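user: can you give me the structure for this one chain? tokens are fine.
assistant: on it. calling the predictor now.
[tool input]
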Amino acid sequence: MGIKRALITGVNGQDGSYLVELLLGKGYEVHGTLRRSSVFTTERIDHLMNDPDINEKTFFTYLADLADSSSLDVILEKVRPDEIYNLASMSHVRVSFDVPVYTGDINGLGVLRILEGIRRLELKDTKFYQASSSEMYGLTPSPQSELSPFNPVSPYGCAKLYGYHITRTYRWGYKIFASNGILFNHESERRGLTFVTRKITRAASRIKLGLQSKLSLGNLYAMRDWGHSRDYMKAIYMILQHDRPDDFVIATGIYHTIKEFLNAVFKYLDMDWKEFVICDDKYRRPNDVPALQGDASKARKELGWEPKIDFKTLVKLMVDNDMKEVKKELLVKDNG
């Protein structure tokens, strides 16, 4: 068997960056899509794109958009990948209420466009992975497993549910090896700054170093099952190596409130979060999901997957990284 080819949509995101590192480490030729933007958004993969030993031989990027079937078809026909990991999406739940139509197009119909490309081009040996989300469960009581009913309460969750079901439909109807990973919240040092965990770790670091005085947040009592993206990318790789296409919940099984996350971050920096945090209703969602706690028993049993990075370590990794970055910011300010 020759070198395997993988196609990752949204390769420049948090998850994409960890997945491309994983696949390159396993000897894959990796192709990734980027959505065109007027500013560079490749900072998470620049270390790979700028490495001539990697870039010239095994890592390639293309401009494409899940809203544009033609751009996807051109890449599918050129690459003819062994594996496709669809990680691209409108990824912010709160923002999905502001751009619901766009969210539905990208997170829902975008999945269909890829699956239709696989079908039309008769890529019979291509395996497809869809990044589904715990937000599909919405108001369903926790813990949530593959057998739990879905009850989404955001445009993001509703669109992801369409992507989940259309993936299953093409698996059954066209015998495509198409699997869903229902990933619960996963964070990392590469998480976007608008997401609540990274917003907290960055703000706490800036407060500690005197660059910020307050942090505004919404609901502090939402409960989330937080893992590390690096662990979860190992899981989705294992999903496509499984002997048959299927759907898997990926989660730690332990949840914490945002308030607990706050406390862990500020305690690690020897501060009291109550002195700095302001609750602001503008950061609340019109509908909020009270509790997400995944039951990943199936993934543990059938895939042999286990998360390695616990909550305390996740917090430490994120804070240490942000302290390092903010110190650089402070140095630039002092030298300016």
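assistant: here you go. The domain at 5-187+226-250 is CATH 3.40.50.720 (Rossmann fold). The chain has two domains: 5-187+226-250, 196-223+256-292+309-335.
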